[in-house]
Amino acid sequence: MSDVAALSQQLLHFSPDALVAVDARGLIRFANETVRVVFGHSPDGLIGQPLDVLLPERFRARHATLLAEFHRSPHSREMGSRVADLYARRADGSEFPAGIRLAPFEWQGEQYVAAAIRDATERRAIRDALVVARAEAERANSAKSRFLATASHDLRQPMQTIRLLNAAMRRLASGCPDIEDLLQREELAIEAATRLLDGLLDVSRLESGAIQPQLDDVPLASVFADLRREFDSVATARGLRLEVAEPGAMLATDRLLFTQLLQNLIGNALKYTERGVVRVTARLDPEYLEIGVEDTGIGIPADKLERIFDEYYQVDRAGAPRLGVGLGLAIVREVSRILGYPVTVRSTVGEGTRVAVRIPRQALRSDHPNAAAAPIAGFAAPGRLVLVEDNASVRAATELYLTVAGYSVMCAASPGEALALAPQLRAGDLLLADYRLGTEMTGIDLLRRLREMLGWEMPAILLSGDLDSLLRVVKAPIPSCRFLGKPVDTGALTAAIAELGESPVAANGTGG
Ligand code: ADP
After folding, report:
1. How much distance in Å is there from the Cα of 204 to the middle of ligand 1?
2. Which long-range contacts (CB under 8 A, 24 or more apart) does 230-238 make?
3. Which of 158, 179, 294, 499 is paired with 143 by a 20 to 30 Å CA distance?
4. Ligand 1 mutation target, pool 309, 317, 329, most atoms within 8 A of CB
5. Is the N-terminal amide bond of 369 cis, ω within 30° of 0?
6. Confidence tier at 176 by pLDDT (50, 70, 90)
7. What is the mean pLDDT of residues 49-57?
8. Mutate to test the pocket of ligand 1, among 191, 234, 238, 272 (most ligand atoms within 8 A of CB)
9. pLDDT over threshold 60, residue 263
10. 117: which strand partners?
11. Among 202, 262, 271, which residue has the most ligand 1 atoms within 8 Å of its CB, making it the best to mutate?
């Protein structure tokens, strides 16, 4: 025998895996020396025995099926790779987790299968540990999302109080420039904290899987028009041109989520552009509708593009102030996942950025009338505000702010107290209530009940710490009723009050 032939025979016998050759009838025709180490069988003793002797009895039937499958389509592969836990059996009857690879070959006109068997105890243990670790990580991640959602939601209440107190103090401090300046700075900090809480609440809720998209037929033009209204003044203030297309398409989409996605992209484009234009486009392709948000801004370095969708990631721009909190694109990422609209970014530093949102064509609808929002009836007579709020500190702060702003306020701590005020109410009074009132009765129930008792359509503003979820629950618009998110923006609150027909009675001359 040549040296090489002798060497290959040694190699075969002492290979790290136990090797056996099995003929077409499933009988072992060769076994190497490693079989002795792995199975405790003498190689010669196995010759002529069925391969089954190396498997525990409970696997034998399955093994016969697998081997027959293998003979039907013989190519090299792992045996039972779809069988999660394959075990082999030692001569002493003990079992061990096994990895078995099969390879077909032909010898002297007969079909054979070579089987390499190794003890997979360690590999299986590692795999099991990974499965456990992964489940653990998923549990921790969802606990984190739930914690963040709850914490950011609950922090809105005290934030609301601080915001209202600040607004009240600003009114009282008019004429004291130093104090006004301090309060102005405090207001900026409150706004930043509110944005952070909003972002945290959004990301954690989206991540936690609690949000299911609610599809409605939505005219794309009306979403774009809302966005233009929202961002026009921001663009003007930054000396930028905002160009928004007027597409005719109708989409089956979740209006709130879709709007949220575009708000974040347009907000970023405006934030990171010093001069030039921000453009929102829509282009139809055979496979998708592509919405583009492009800017002529500072751009994003190529090596950072991967990371900008991570929570809290912000591109470090030597010395430049940070303009956000780093959650906008994490929200975009989650909404894009939930809606199934892939988002891609192209950018050149110093030239600008283009973000493309691809909406699959199946989401396109046609022939849908543009539903225009019904105008809200105004109330000419100056009336009073009926404030219903169960949280004492928020109630006191809101009352203080509204009184300072010149409104006449009646307070109730519960729906029951509000209903007890009904005999004193007159046309022109407006209800300002939390949606959640800490009782069985929601703000909407209270409004309905009051309207029934009064016999006229009392206008109302309902506040909610979770406006998005509330808007999902309230399907049909309620006439003369506005919904605002908490912490409430005092400007938005007074605008809504004015829109519903109230004006400050200006008893103390500070109203406006
Ligand atoms: P932020 O609150 O910081 O804007 P985002 O998650 O929205 O957080 O964005 C992450 C980072 O990506 C930003 O900090 C910014 O550096 C970069 N970025 C996002 N959009 C743009 C854009 N249109 N132009 C330039 N940079 C952008």
Report:
1. 19
2. 230/263, 231/266, 231/267, 231/270, 234/267, 234/270, 235/270, 235/278, 238/270, 238/273
3. 158
4. 329
5. no
6. very high
7. 89
8. 272
9. yes
10. 18, 100
11. 271
297 CA → ligand 1 middle, Å: 11
Where b means 16+ CB within 10 Å and e means fewer, 282-291 reads: beeeeebbbb
The CA radius of gyration of the chain, in Å to the nearest whole number, is: 35
Winning range, highest mean pLDDT, from 156-160, 278-282, 313-317, 478-482 = 278-282
**What tokens were used for 407?**
């409104």
Read off the pTM: 0.57
Question: 3-119 belongs to which homologous superfamily?
Answer: PAS domain (3.30.450.20)
- CA 297 to ligand 1: nearest atom: 24
Q: Which CATH class is domain 214-372?
A: alpha beta
Q: 498 C-alpha to center of ligand 1: Å?
A: 36
Strand partners, 430: 385
Ligand 1 cavity residues, CB under 6 Å: 268-269, 271-272, 295, 297-300, 308, 313-315, 323-330, 353
Whether 230 contacts 263, CB under 8 Å: yes
Which pLDDT score is estimated for 354?
A: 97
Q: Which residue has the CA at smallest separation from atom 11 of ligand 1? A: 314
Residue 229, helix vs strand vs coil: helix
What sign has the CA pseudo-torsion 64, 66, 72, 76? negative
Best CATH choice for the domain 385-508 from the list 3.50.50.60, 1.10.3210.10, 3.40.50.2300, 3.40.50.300: 3.40.50.2300
261 Cα: distance to centroid of ligand 1 (angstroms): 14
Give the residue-averaged pLDDT of 130-135: 93
Q: How far is the CA of 265 from the centre of ligand 1 (A)?
A: 9
Test site for ligand 1: of 263, 296, 300, most ligand atoms within 8 A of the Cβ = 300
Residue 425 CB partners (closer than 8 Å, separation 6+): 386, 450, 454, 458
CA atoms of 480 and 477, how far apart (whole Å): 9
Candidate from 150-154, 386-390, 443-447, 505-509 with smallest mean pLDDT = 505-509
